[in-house]
Design a protein that fits this description.
The structure is a single chain. By secondary structure, the protein is an alpha+beta fold. It folds into two domains: 1-37; 46-156, Glutaredoxin. The chain has five helices and five strands. The chain has helices at 2-37, 58-61, 76-85, 118-121, 143-156; strands at residues 50-51, 65-70, 92-98, 125-128, 134-138. The protein has a five-stranded mixed β-sheet, with helices on one face. Strand 4 (125-128) and strand 5 form a beta hairpin. Residues 51-56 and 99-107 have low confidence and may be disordered.
Length: 168
Amino acid sequence: MKYIAGIVTLALIVILPAGSWYYLQSGYDFRLELLQQLEPKGELDISSLHVEAGNLVQEAIDNSTVLVYNSALVDGKKIADIEDQFKNAMTFKTLAIADSAQQVNTVDLKLANGKSSELLQMYKAVLIDTSNQVRQWYKLDSEAQYEEVVEHLAVVLPRVPNKDIIPK
């Protein structure tokens, strides 16, 4: 009986805290890796964006985390699933666009320095944060890339501030 008590005590004092530390450390490392992938890649020139109807979209993406995508090149059902998953996020929006010539074979986004990025023209979607910084480009050719979008959104979206308890 005293051996069982010793093993239980050892498990409570050493093994459980070590397991908890390992679990929390792996989550921390995962988040740090995602943050490195999501470093700002340049500010977006909002005036270069047009929705399919041709309207400017500045008011649609100001102070929002936006997934801008080319509606002709991506799977609409998967985008709808992403929208449904983040429907309660306070700043998340999706925006289907075409370039200014109404051709939907490229996503033509310009960075604020006035140069059109050739990289942006190769991708089907772009993640933009609340300060109009391009965080990541996506080709969205496989299911794994849609899952990557979900992971990145979970990191980039601002958290809802907790309400403070005010004593009376």
